[in-house]
C-alpha cells in the first residue's frame, strides 16, 4: 500500500492574494496618485480605470472574502454568485451590463496543471492527500479529466471538507479501489482557551479500511504559514502541533496503532513550533528511514547540506511531512520524495520536467512525499 501527500497549491485557480507581485514596492507613489485622482471633481473613464488598477495594487479591494464571481475552467461565461443578485445570473447583451468585476482568483498556467498530474502519476499512490485545492468539483475534474492524460487511472473515491480558510485551501483525499473511507472528522471548530479557532485551515481525521481489511488512521494537517506581518504565526503553529499531538496520543490510548500524520506543517524539523509532534511523541519522520529515495542536487550542491533541508544533497526547505506511528514505521518498505515539478530557486539545482521553463509552469513549490507500507 502506498500513501502520498502533496501540496498542489491549487488545481486550476489560485486566490490572487497568494500570487507573487511582479512589481517593485511603489506603494507611496500609488497612494499619492490615488489621492490626486480622488480629488478631481470630474473624472474621466481613464481616471476611473486607473483608480481600479491602483486599488488592486495597494490592496484596498483585497477583502479576502469568498469570491463573489466565479469562472469555471471550461466555461466561457461569467456567472455572478451571491445572496442579493437577481435571477439573471449571466452578464450578456440582454442585461445591458457594462460594469466590472474584481475576480478573487487567477487561472493557473495550463502546463502547471499538467505537471501537477505528472507528479501524481509518477508516484501513483493508493491513498493521496492533497493540500490547497479549490473544492470537490475541481478535484473531481482533475481526477477524471487531467490525470488520465498521463496514463494515471482515476481514483475511485474523493472527498473534500471545507475548512476555515475561504481562499481555496481545502484538504482533500483520493483513494483507489479496495481502500474504503469509513469516516472523516473535521477539527475546524476546535478552539483554544482564549476561544480562538486553533486551525486556520483544518485538521482532518480519516479512518480507512485497506484491501487487506486492516484499518489505518490518517491525520491530515495544514499548519499556519510564517507571515512577515504576523509575529504570532509561530505561536499559532505550536498550538496546532500540540493539538495534533494530543489527538495522536488519544488514538494510541484507544488502541489504534496504525496512524499516519501527513501534510504541510510549514516549518523545518528543528523548529520549536514542531517540538510537540517531532520530539514529544513516538512518531517517526519517513525522511529519516534508510530507504528514503530522492534525486540529489546537481553539481557542487550534491554534497551540500542546507539548514532545514530534507537531507544532505536535497536542498529544498522541508515543510511537508509524512510521520508514522511505531507500528506503521516497522512496516515501511520504501519511501521517497518527488520534486521534479518544483522550480529550483537560486543556486540549488535538481532534475525537473523538461517542459518547465518558468516558475509559473512548475507543479508546485512543494514536493510530493510518499511511503510504501507492508500492510
CATH topology of the largest domain: Deoxyribonuclease I, Chain A
The CATH class of the largest domain, by name, is Alpha Beta
**Order of neighbouring strands in the sheet with most strands:** 7-8-6-1-19-18-14
The CATH H-level homologous superfamily of the largest domain: Endonuclease/exonuclease/phosphatase
Oligomer: single chain
Give me the secondary-structure category: alpha+beta
- Low-confidence parts lasting 5 or more residues at pLDDT below 50? 63-76, 80-89
How many domains make up the 3D coordinates?
A: 2
The CATH architecture of the largest domain comes to: 4-Layer Sandwich
Number of strands: 19
Topology pattern, helix = H, strand = E:
EEHHEEEHEHEEEEEHEHEEEEEHEE
- Describe the global form: globular
Please explain how this structure is put together.
The chain is α+β, with helices and mostly antiparallel strands. It folds into 2 domains: 2-13 and 108-373, Deoxyribonuclease I, Chain A, CATH 3.60.10; 17-107, no CATH class. Helix content is 21%, strand content 25%. The protein has 7 helices and 19 strands. The chain has helices at 27-38, 45-57, 110-123, 136-146, 233-253, 275-278, 326-329; strands spanning 2-7, 13-15, 69-70, 79-80, 105-107, 127-133, 157-161, 170-175, 180-186, 202-209, 215-222, 259-264, 284-285, 292-293, 309-311, 314-317, 320-324, 332-338, 368-373. It has a 7-stranded mixed sheet. α5 links the parallel β11 and β12 (259-264). α1 (27-38) packs antiparallel against α2. It is globular. It starts with a strand and ends with a strand. The model is unreliable at 63-76 and 80-89 (pLDDT under 50).
